Structures are given as structure tokens and as C-alpha cells.
TrEMBL record:
Top-level taxon of the source organism: Eukaryota
Name of the protein this chain belongs to: 15-cis-phytoene synthase
Biological process terms in GO annotation: carotenoid biosynthetic process
InterPro entries: Isoprenoid_synthase_dom_sf (IPR008949), Squ/phyt_synthse (IPR002060), Squalene/phytoene_synthase_CS (IPR019845), Trans_IPPS_bact-type (IPR044843), Trans_IPPS_HH (IPR033904)
GO molecular function: 15-cis-phytoene synthase activity; geranylgeranyl diphosphate synthase activity; squalene synthase [NAD(P)H] activity
EC category name: transferase
Species this chain originates from: Vigna mungo
Lineage: Eukaryota, Viridiplantae, Streptophyta, Embryophyta, Tracheophyta
Amino acid sequence: MSGVLLWVSCGPKENPISVGVAGRGGKSQRRFGLCNGITFASFSPAVTDPSRSSEERVYEVVLKQAALVKEQNKGTKRSLNLNKPIEGDFTQGDLLSVAYDRCGEVCAEYAKTFYLEAYPIRLVVHYFFVEIEIEIDYTLSIEVWCRRTDELVDGPNASHITPKALDRWEKRLYDVFEGRPYDMYDAALSDTVSKYPVDIQPFKDMIEGMRLDLRKSRYNNFDELYLYCYYVAGTVGLMSVPVMGIAPASKASTESIYNAALALGIANQLTNILRDVGEDARRGRVYLPQDELAQAGLSDDDILIGKVTDKWRSFMKGQIQRARMFFDEAEKGVSELSSASRWPVWASLLLYRQILDAIEANDYNNFTKRAYVGKLKKLLSLPAAYGRALIGPSKNLTKMVTTK
Ligand SMILES: CC(C)=CCC/C(C)=C/CC/C(C)=C/CC/C(C)=C/COP(=O)(O)OP(=O)(O)O
């Protein structure tokens, strides 16, 4: 066996849910055993297995990104060559500083859960705890690219978006990675990806998620849903960590930290899905695993009717438990991040996780009630997040399953 598995799979005893996996060693076979209602999986290498699960396929991206980070740590750096001029009268230094400022403005425009809490905290951290001068926040260029990508299928022009437009967006992405930005925001991203060991794959995969959203409105099982969640949110975790950085004192393997980042993206997206069930159904979309709905005696019609029944409550309990397991997995990696990144990440994790509590507090009515975390709770989470952020990398490696 090449690696004990990370975690995975859960569900209330009466409605166990197989969540899936992430293991080491790429092609692998899974063995499941049930223990107290929680399924644990372990891996063993397989010769060739064409029908690999989504988790196994996604884990290959994790390994690829981790390998790139290790390579860059050895000193192989890319350099930015803005070989296509951008409109305006700027030197390259000015241009980048203006570009990052604009990225900050765009993120402020979108400001909801993540920006609102994370960005001011980052500023506070920079001002009072790390440095007096505000550093450029390089993750902003990534966030803006993700927002723009999402806007293609979710924004005001979404009805005109075709797979061809996404192909053009992908071509542009290659240009950005090769130092040929089309505009300011691209220039900031070109700069970021030239400075940090960010792999293009998660970006391509996010575009793939948008393609999927155009053609698919139902998910047969959790394996399909997991892949979607990776595409649209897990990718963000993989894009961010190379920029946020890992604490120099961390003894955890790079792979395990990227895995935790992936888990946070998945947890956030699952939470989003559970919060927006009614809203999505009214747009003709059901992002819940159809086989699990059927097992619970539920169908799309029940969701459209939108009546909270005991069947629905029990089904939702299982879904919430699974999302929490992904948050648990993510938590193991936060302390391994660089000190300046830990607070915002803890803050967003604790805040987003509370949306699950809010769904419970709404008696699982996610058809007509939007679960949200009130301002006071949000405020109280900040010192809690700060307290956790003070704890740096664990000396005890048993907490992280994989080792360097
Ligand atoms: C845990 C470790 C090691 C690192 C952290 C790595 C990161 C930053 C992971 C987070 C990934 C992330 C932010 C994914 C996006 C998920 C998501 C569902 C975003 C939805 O954003 P909005 O649409 O603005 O949400 P609201 O509608 O709730 O405001």
C-alpha cells in the first residue's frame, strides 16, 4: 500500500454516504470499510485502471502542483516578459502596481463572504503584525481571474456564452501564462504566475467547470459532483497556496497541504450548493447527487415543490455531515500555511462553515430561506480565527497523514 488514505466518506448511520477519496500514488484501488457510520478508504497501487474515480484524477493535479512548488523551491524561476504593450502610458512597474490596485477594486466590488472578511484582515495583518507597508496582495489577480471566468457563465451576458467563447478564454489564459496579457487584470495575473510556482492546470480546469455548467444540470452521483466542485472551487485552493506560501517550519508534505486546500474549496462549494438548493432549482439546476436523492426516497419534484419533510431533513443531515468532513480535512492544512495567510484562511473557513449551522437553524429549509451568518457572528469569528492563526505548523506529524 503506497499511502494510507486521507479520509473520507461519511453519512449518518441510517443513510451512509460514500464520499470518496484522495490518496497518494495516482492509479490506485480503493478498499472501503465501514466504522461507526464512517467509511474509511485505503489505497493500493493498481496496474492500470481506466475507470478511476474523480478523486483519483483530481489528486493527480494535486501531485503536479506540489511537484512544481518543489521544483521552484530548488530555484528554477520563470520570468515575466510583457511582450505585448498594454494600452496606457505606463512603465512596467507602474502598470503592475495600477493593475494590482484595479484587481483590489474588482474584488471589493464583488465583496461578499470571502473578500469582506479576508481582505481587511490581510490589511490589518500587514499593517500591524507583519510590516508597516502594505505589500501587493498577489492572490487578488487570481481572484479577479476566477471572478471573470465565473461571470462568463453566471454574469449578465451568460446567455450569450458558448463553448467557443470559453475556448477563446482558454486561449487567452495560455497567453497570460506566456506573458502576453490582453488587459490590466491579465497583466497582474501574468506577473503573479511568473513570480510564484502556479500551474496552469487548475485554471484550465476551472474553465472546464464552466463548460460543464453549460451542458449539465444534473449529477448522477457524488463522484460526478466532486469533479464539478473541484473544477469550480477546489481549483481555487490549488491556485492560491503557491502564492500564500507554506510556513518555513512546516514539516507536512507539500501534497498534504495542497490536499487540504483542495478540501477547503470542495467544502465551500458543497456548502454553497446546500445553501442555494431552492434558488438553483428555480434556474433548472439540481447540484445534489441523484442516486442519493433516490435512496432517500426523494426526487427533483420534491425539490421543486420545496416542502421540508422528515425525508428531506434526514437527507440534508447526511449532506451537511459530508461537507463538514471536508472542512475538517481542510483544517488540518491551515496551520501549515505562511503566518500572514493563516488568519484570512481561518476566517473564511470558520465563516463559511457556519452557513451549515445556519441551514440547520432554518430547520433545513433551503428552498425558500437563504442561510446566512449574521454580522455579530461574523465579527466574533475574527478573533477566533486570529487565535487559531497564532498556532503554526504542527510538530506532531500524525495529524497530517502524508509525509514528505
Ligand atoms: C486550507 C489550505 C491549506 C489553504 C487554503 C486554500 C484556499 C484559499 C481555499 C479556498 C478556495 C475557495 C475560496 C473556493 C471558492 C469557493 C466558493 C464556493 C466561492 C463562492 O464565492 P461567492 O460566490 O462570493 O460566495 P458567497 O455567495 O457566499 O459570497
